[in-house]
Amino acid sequence: MAFTYLISESYIKERTAVDANVDQKIIKPLIRDCQEIYILPILGTDLYEKIVSDANANKQSGTAIAEPYKTLLNTYITKILLYRVSVDLGDFISLKMRNNGVIRQGNEGGNAASITEIQRLSDKFEAKAEFWEYRLKQWLCEKADDMPEYEDNDDDGDFAPEKTSHVNGLYLG
C-alpha cells in the first residue's frame, strides 16, 4: 500500500520560508520520517492508522473526515509536521552527502548560513513543534472518550500513545 502523507511539500512551502525551488525529493522523505517518528508515538498505532485511513479516503474520494478526527488532523498534526519537517530541512538543504563526503551546498544568489544560524533557526522550529505536541497531548486526554482508537492499542507491536509531556525544570543550584 502506498504511503499516505498527512501534509504536502506545498503545505510546507506556503507556510514557511522554504523556497518553491526546494526539491520534493528532499521534503517528502522528511515528512514520512516525521509522521513515523513524532506523530505515531503520540497517537498510538490504532489512532494513527485511523487518521491515515481517513486522510487517504478524503484524498481518494472526497470522503469528509468526521470530528474530532478532523480537528486532530487539521489543528494539531499538520502544525507538528510543519515544524518538525522544518527542523530537519535546515540540515538537509544546506549539507549534502556525496561519495567524497559531506559537503556544504554552493550559494545561489546569497551566502550560505553558518552552522550557528542554521541551529538557531532549527531551535525556533523545534520550540514550535514541542508547543503543538504538548497541546496535542492535552487535547487527546480531553477527547479520549470520543476516539476509542486512542485507548485501543493492545495488539503485539502496537505503539501505545504517549500521554505525558516531559517538561523538566531548570535547577539554579
Relative strand content:
under 5%
Helical content band: 55-70%
Strands, total number: 2
Q: What is the oligomeric state here?
A: single chain
Structural class: mainly alpha
Termini, distance in Å?
A: 54 Å
Shape: globular
Average residue-wise pLDDT: 87
- Biggest sheet strand line-up: 1-2
Uncertain residue ranges: none
SSE run? HHHHEEH
> What count of helical segments does DSSP give?
5
Radius of gyration using CA atoms only? 18 Å
Count of individual domains: 1
For the largest beta-sheet, the strand count, sense and barrel status come to: 2 strands, antiparallel
Please explain how this structure is put together.
There is one protein chain. This protein is mainly alpha-helical and 173 residues long. The radius of gyration is 18 Å and the shape is globular. The longest helix has 29 residues. Helix 2 packs across helix 3. It has 5 helices and 2 strands, in the order ααααββα. Helix content is 57%, strand content 5%. It has a two-stranded antiparallel ribbon. The termini are far apart. The chain has one domain.
Topology of this structure?
Elements: H1 9-15, H2 24-43, H3 45-61, H4 69-94, E1 95-98, E2 101-104, H5 115-143
Antiparallel strand pairs: 1-2
Task: Describe the structure concisely.
This protein is mainly alpha-helical and 173 residues long. It has helices spanning 9-15, 24-43, 45-61, 69-94, 115-143; strands spanning 95-98, 101-104.
